[in-house]
Amino acid sequence: xxxxxxxxxxxxxxxxxxxxxxxxxxxxxxxxxxxxxxxxxxxxxxxxxxxxxxxxxxxxxxxxxxxxxxxxxxxxxxxxxxxxxxxxxxxxxxxxxxxxxxxxxxxxxxxxxxxxxxxxxxxxxxxxxxxxxxxxxxxxxxxxxxxxxxxxxxxxxxxxxxxxxxxxxxxxxxxxxxxxxxxxxxxxxxxxxxxxxxxxxxxxxxxxxxxxxxxxxxxxxxxxxxxxxxxxxxxxxxxxxxxxxxxxxxxxxxxxxxxxxxxxxxxxxxxxxxxxxxxxxxxxxxxxxxxxxxxxxxxxxxxxxxxxxxxxxxxxxxxxxx
Length: 322
What we know:
By secondary structure, the protein is α/β, with parallel strands linked by helices. It has 9 helices and 15 strands. Strands 3, 4, 5, 6, 7, 14 and 15 form a 7-stranded mixed beta sheet that branches. A 6-stranded parallel beta sheet has the order 10-9-8-11-12-13, sandwiched between helices.
């Protein structure tokens, strides 16, 4: 008799429904993971709301790419991971109770890390930070303090940079200070922010600016804050349409522009391994960042919260019953 599982399916704009589908079987070089949970990424919001190129229904479990759980079945020729290992994964169908993962797309979690572990966004932050090339003593502005911005604040401040965190909500700025920001600025008035950053940096601007929102205005602002010869790092995920940039200003200042989302699987895995190591070493505390928890049947609410950011929100995770 075929074993069945629950999986979330995007059936139309703003509509997530639970379906009962067969539990998948691992192939050669793959394992099956009984998922404990999956993070909700901000990049899930636009597909959930519906884009002109969207088609429905989506695949069962689709959009879920921040899963973690326990290996419960092995395919042929699997080495380096055993049944019962707890893992964090880079897989794409984890809004479901089980997912299939290639062994080169997971990291075994140390026993000392028993809690929720959405590793993919953590690995993303590690890779963005590497591409940012932050040096001790530099002024680093981070525009947008959510999960990603907070982790980058910690990494940059630990590297000896002077971090200016810029975000809309006071609670986000408080989070940035907790993660090491030297200065915080409310993201409300465009020119006032520029003036404050110039005052802090002696009129030069910041050697590094990381845009971590994914919208037009924060991108405009980030470009204004970069010092001559500095580096603008685009960490926000811009997926809701074309962008306009002030190429005249970028040209004149001679800045480097880095699109820091990695697509090389080996680089993605490097970031994931580094992220696990950073949490295990106590460099990054995940607990304050995982603020809202939902069961799978309330995934739609989790996506709405990711879009609307209720009080205290940093990141939503979906948790599955054992």
